[in-house]
Amino acid sequence: MKLTFAASRRLWWGIPLLLVLLACLGALLPQWGSELPQPPAFTTVALPIVRFIRDIAAAITVGALAVGGLLVKRQSSRVIGWATWWALVWLVSLVAEVVLTFSDILAVIPSLDGAALGSFLTDVSVGRVFLWQGIAVLVVLAMSRAVLSRPTAWVVLACALGGAMAPAFLGHGGLSGGHAAATISLALHLAAVSLWVGGLVVVVAWLRVDPARARTVLPRFSTLALVCVVVVAESGLLNSSLRSSTPAQFLASDYGALLVAKATLIVWLVTLGWQQRKRVMPQLELAESAESADSTDSLSVVILARIAGWEFLAMGAAVAVGVTMARVGPDSAAASALPVNPLMLALLAAALPAAFAQILRPSSDRALVRWAQQFPEIVAILLAIIVVEVAGVAVLSSLLGPDVGAVVGAVVLVACGWLGVVALQGERSKLARGAFTAAWVVALGVTLGFERAQFPQMFDVRLSVLALAVAVVSVMLVGVGPVREVAVTQPLEPAHG
Ligand code: HEM
């Protein structure tokens, strides 16, 4: 348990991010002043945190059962033991979630009133989903120690996956009202996320104490992770496409911005996963033939853990974004009065191109690339003007109409962001970083000014501050991002325990 917690440390950084996201989207605290009864502030803050803990605990339980029960020929009692501990954490977080959800729905102080909670769990459809999830977790807890063969591992893993998928039957993806496709795609999404995230935590923790297993476990897990990433992306995109909104609403909404944040994170994750394959697999092949196979195995585990550290950051962020999406809901359309939500602006014109820059290298043979790298300050000014024109002046929506304007606007922002990324990779990269940071401060400041002048009642500075942070971090990561940082040359001591 301690080992998996240590390995998954960076995943938990998703909790502060979750709180920041909720605070910036105005969903962290109850809507005081509203005429409807509001839940206590404690409930509103604690519920998403508990949900995050539930998602991670479910993932590590599923990961431990899959890796320790099925990825190796002889089941590992150590790894299956981790599944038992994390199932316990899952159960506790689920009980807390039931109490807090009850308090949230009925706007009452959280309490352990057995009769009221009992009827919530049996009479209300949301409660029944919790009940089924709880039963699945209890079965996992009771049976995990009995995983001694592949058939039992399959049975317990199926129960754990069922529990991990249960939240798909709640809320925005609920089966009611003909939303079967939304529910099934979200269930697949959650199952694949659990196998992938939890599997990686368990593989890192296990190989740190037993590096000799690397040659058996890593190639198999690598294939599993590849399948999971495809399912996560496909099911996530399918689910998003079912939450119908027009392109204009998508670009203006908080939910749309959160979806683009997810897409950006998955680009980072694919890049990091590809780095794992490229750097760890050759080490393993070397170990097959090397005299000192042990040290070669240890080195591959060190490289794996380093890259996985970055993967956990991105995965924790993606889970935080998922929990935020579930909290704010797709109906938060047009949360921004401007044609483009400020967070969407920073994601399209900075974060997404910066993520793609980790894989795609611009060729310096092209005249446009050479020009951008020679004059990054001009590209930065151009970016600021385009951001203000598209989001502040709303020139494209006035000329082309809201929907066509939104599509063209998104393409223009990404193209301009890509030119910025190209400029940042040239010889004048230091100056370019300063110029782009200044450009973002000016562009977001001016669009905020437009919002304040036109829609004073909707004016909110928090989202623009978050957008600025996203843009600046993206600018800083171009050219020095994790993919470069993980070039490992010195082996580290593997952990013992
Ligand atoms: C192309 C990339 C992705 C897309 C389009 C996407 C889309 C979605 C959507 C639409 C939801 C439902 C939110 C709601 O109920 O309103 C969701 C939930 C979720 N996603 Fe993703 N996702 C993507 C990638 C990821 C990744 C990479 C992870 C983690 C590694 C992840 C983890 C989750 C989790 C844990 C939830 C459930 C949160 C909760 O309800 O507690 N997603 N995602």
Unreliable sequence segments: 487-497
Structural class: mainly alpha
The profile of the biggest β sheet is: none
Number of domains: 2
Euclidean distance between termini CA atoms:
11 Å
H/E order of the elements?
A: HHHHHHHHHHHHHHHHHHHH
What is bound: which ligands?
A: protoporphyrin IX containing FE
Percent of sequence in beta strands: under 5%
- Per the principal axes of the C-alpha atoms, what is the gross shape? flat
Task: Explain what this protein looks like in three dimensions.
By secondary structure, the protein is mostly helical. It has 2 domains: about 1-330; about 340-485, no CATH class. It is about 75% helix and about 0% strand. It has helices at about 1-5, 15-25, 40-70, 75-105, 115-125, 125-145, 150-165, 180-210, 215-240, 245-250, 255-290, 295-330, 340-355, 365-375, 375-395, 395-400, 400-425, 430-455, 460-475, 480-485. α2 (about 15-25) packs across α19 (about 460-475). Protoporphyrin IX containing FE binds near residues 318 and 319.
Q: Can you summarize this structure?
A:
This protein is mainly α and 497 residues long. The protein has helices spanning 2-7, 14-24, 41-70, 77-106, 114-123, 125-143, 150-165, 180-209, 214-242, 247-252, 254-289, 293-328, 342-356, 367-374, 376-393, 395-400, 402-424, 429-454, 461-477, 482-485.
Give the SSE map.
Layout lengths: L1 H6 L6 H11 L16 H30 L6 H30 L7 H10 L1 H19 L6 H16 L14 H30 L4 H29 L4 H6 L1 H36 L3 H36 L13 H15 L10 H8 L1 H18 L1 H6 L1 H23 L4 H26 L6 H17 L4 H4 L12
Helix pairs in contact: 2-3, 2-12, 2-19, 3-4, 3-7, 3-8, 3-12, 4-6, 5-6, 6-7, 7-8, 8-9, 8-12, 9-11, 11-12, 11-13, 13-17, 13-19, 14-17, 15-17, 15-18, 18-19
